[in-house]
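== Sequence and structure of one protein ==
=== Format: two labelled lines per protein ===
==== Data for this protein ====
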Amino acid sequence: MKVVFDTNVLVSALVFPGGRGEEALQRILEEKDELVLSKPILDELLGILGRKFSRDAEALSHVAVFLSELSLSVRPRQRLHVVKDEPDNRILECAITGHADVIVTGDRALLALREYRDVRIISLREYLDT
């Protein structure tokens, strides 16, 4: 199954060991699912890790390489304006471009959509229960 994790799921996986985010990332590492990632999502993630979690340039570089090697990287060409929060639109763009099956998020606006262009939108808990 191809999945797109929103930025908060990725932050959780990388910053809070032993949590649900890490459990989700473990499914990718074990090749049970395939992570789809785009540069805008990676850029947002690295910005958050640097600003809010004081990660230095070397640590951010390691994260970028790790996720790039682990995921299918896509380059969305179409800009979407489906939800109010622009970074959430980048999640949708990545999922559509990468032909993802699922978006995993905790974002209420995305979860309210339930599905967008045949991509299911589910919570982290739902993802881990599948």
Remarks:
- The chain has a mean pLDDT of 95.
